[in-house]
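User: Assemble these into one structure.

Assistant: Restating your components, then the assembled model:
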Amino acid sequence: MTSSLYTRRKGSFNLVEINTGVASCLQLLEISRKLGLGLSPEEMKTVQVYFNKEQRSPTDVELQTIAQTWSEHCCHKTFKGKIHFNGKEIDSLFKTFISRATEEINAPWCVSVFEDNAGIIRFNQDYGIAVKVETHNHPSAVEPFGGAATGVGGVIRDVLGVWADPIACTDVLGFGPLDFDYHKLPSGVKHPKYVYTGVVGGIGSYGNNMGIPTVNGAIYFDESYTGNVVVFCGCIGLLPLKKFKKNAQPNHIILLAGGKTGRDGIHGVTFASAELTEESEEISRPAVQIANPIEEEKLKRAIIEIRELNLASAITDLGGGGLSSAVGETAQNYGCGATVELEKVPLKDPGLAPWEIFLSESQERMLLIIPKENLEKALETFEKEEVEATAIGKLTLEKRLKLVFHKERVADLNMQFLFKTKKSVKSASIQKTNLEEPFFPEPENITETLLQLLAAPNIASKESVIRTYDHEVKGNTTLKPLQGAYGGPNDAAVIKPLEGSNRGLTISCGMNPNYGKVDTYWMAASAIDEAIRNNLAVGGRKISLLDNFTWGNPEKPDRLGALVRACEACYDFATAFGTPFISGKDSLYNESPLGPVTPTLLITAIGIIPDIHDTVSMDVKTPDNSIYVVGQTRRELGGSEYYRLKGFLGRDVPKVYPMQTKETFRAITKAIDLGTVRACHDLSEGGLGIAAAEMAMAGDYGIELDLNLLPKEALNRNDLLLFSESNSRFLVEVSEENRRDFETSLEPSIFSKIGKVKKNKKLTVYGVDQKTIIDVRLAELRKSWKGTLSSGCEL
Amino acid sequence: MKREEIRVCLLRVGGTNCDSETQRAFQELGVQTENVHLNEMVKRKNLMEYQGLVFPGGFSYGDYVRAGAIWAKRLIAKLGNELKTFVEANRPILGICNGFQVLVESGLLPGFEGMSAYPEATLATNVPQGYNCRWVHIKNENKGRCIYTSKIPRGEVLRIPVAHSEGRFLFPKQKEQELLDNLYEKDLVVFRYCDNKGEYAEGLFPSNPNGSFHDIAGICNPEGTIFGLMPHPERAIFWWQQPDWTRQKNWPRYGDGKIIFESLIRYLVKKG
């Protein structure tokens, strides 16, 4: 019935014109489906009207280009659209909650935020730090190794795309339980163990091969990640601020550099904007790209050289949407149009149709805009590094996107039409839950509980993974992810990026998906609090944040309502702490036959430590030093690892009390500045009990704690005191001679000395009734903590 | 020769990625370095203008065949004669990690009877399998042949990180013992993996991080001028690179990797 809709244009190559002229609504939808456009009926109608006005039929190249540009992945319809929520209209989540927070905070260290491929902050007078975190969930679900590897490759190019030299990577991953029952796996869903091995391998492989240290990260396990693996890849780069130039003009040359273009990664963008189904494997396999880190390593060297020689007027990476996004967005950003001769694009396979060339997401490619007079020198620079680079077109004064293939025009689109997307209108609601706090007696053997918690996948040592990432290459990792011989988990990584300067960069993250099952507002608040306190714990300040959402289908009002709540918290707590958002990314439509992903917000925090000499690690250092807890412990165990261990979710998730927290945060920084802090560790999953165990295991000294001395509110049970996950808390080691200064600097925040470092290599805890409730050797703690994810050969 | 006059060439190809920190190590010790792409060197043919040559770590050409194999073949095909002249002049060559793999693959190490046409040993995939990044202890075993350990007392233990997935030093199984005896006879064993007290790892992970035969971490050629090792001394130069500097109150300014570069520089200064 539809054959008359498509006319193959006469000629030697594959180009189809689509006769949208009088097509019915049903036919328009059929076109969208058949070409894999992912456009809605309204959008198809808009397309029809446009081409009727132009008095011609669109080509497949044009329809595909429009579809890419209008996809969720490229234009963030949900975050920029309108949302009806609680009887009010929110005009853009992004503007209302994220960028508004940044504007109001107006931090002096923000250089360029939300504008380019990566956010840029000031590091010192001359240098800036570029940061970007991406999601690569969908490709990793279909092909774990390739999906994760290209996720890393993509985010590194984002950083190169603002002229920054990549200096560190961070990766946060979410998997289903590794012991998931094979019989319960629906067809099309891969087993978590397979996904875990592949993703971890892919991330290590790309970073290691490129020689960029992977210094920070986290791994979470959750039932809902079984069908929806979560892969956040981040990259941090360094750039001389005066090299951050943007002055592309009409007639400048469009230069495509890097790997050849192939059929890999076609429709990755539309794929990422849809739910995963049983057929995803078959249909979407070509949407996953193939990684070649060595190509990108060479590309990186050439691009840094071009930056040093000031040869280019603009740069961007080729990611989602391939050339269509890179060329279109660059032209749009500089108020130009563009002409591209598609036959000039170097191909892996000569048989590619024009639309495939324009959309392919083949990896390791960058787009540079070069003034004519610099072209020769630029080509020479690429050649030196054995990188292919080809002039494929130029920017034009006329604001149209014109594509030519062997002298024949295959696309001619008005830029304004292409980039003027209508705001989507969605409705959101909050699903009422009837959650309750569980009642169960205090366990008789709390030592046993502690050992079980240490072995819980979300708390267990991730050393077996971290060791497969090179976290030392470049020789600038000052505080490594693993502390000491026993692999203590540091709160943040510290990088010393500049020669001749002791200024350091602090990198940390926070993520609490389990709290989101109760309330996404407090989940987001907790993630922000956790990311910041991790950063402060090592000595960071001037903190900036990145927000990365992994969410379910936003067309469903309950998912969207949860998203609105999380965004509200982003605004409330970023402004409360004066920590601006500088970049972010959302991955929506994470739904599989097993259901939606649990709402997941990753907050990455980037801070600065003025002198790396002042860096604080988390391992206890010297026997007889005092142990302090800073911050209030409350009955906040909803979504905690302790409740999970007992089989409950609970209701009372940890909240953030901004006034009190600000006081605590300020005090910690002051105490570190005064040099009074020997060790500092944040309290997170598993609360005080786990934090103390980790500090002792890492330092190989015992710790003795008295729960009676803990600052607490409405709580008098040993297990709850030990494992409550109340936010904004730190455990600090202070030497005898510094105690007075430490205490003075902490006033008037809430804190208390609760114990001591011991020589005896044991963790000992006295309960509220003065009885010894825990008395266990560090070796035994280590055995539990390292057993879960061990490759069988750790210490 | 004065230290400031020494020029060391860091040769690189696509995938080399430890050149900047290696360069920094030499710079810290007051030696000039130049980072040269193999293609550039093939054009210039001026290897003899440098007093020393370094193959830094990385994943040359992706190490897609066997670590170091592609670079080794290219090196010999494109720069074979220059390299030969360089070796015969007893100019030192250092290979770190991937560089060590290249030296073994190109027949320069161990080089029992001079440069061999075929690799005499190999750096196989780690046991336990997989990439491993950690600090290890290595013990200086050399009796005086190796110019890179001349400043290190015999039996001294250094702490230096490794990061690789193909570092298991192996000889052909049937000739294992014979070749090992050969190594000792000619004083080619330089570093062996050990624990923090200096006890040999005896193949046990993690002290021996890759399952190397006889805990071998680094070897030299019979002249003592060509030296390769899996650990990365260039990552153990400064105090802030140490894994536990935050534990110490007064940490030393430098790490254990520095003395290897110093020994090399002493040789170059003396050699003139």
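Chain A is about 35% helix and 25% strand.
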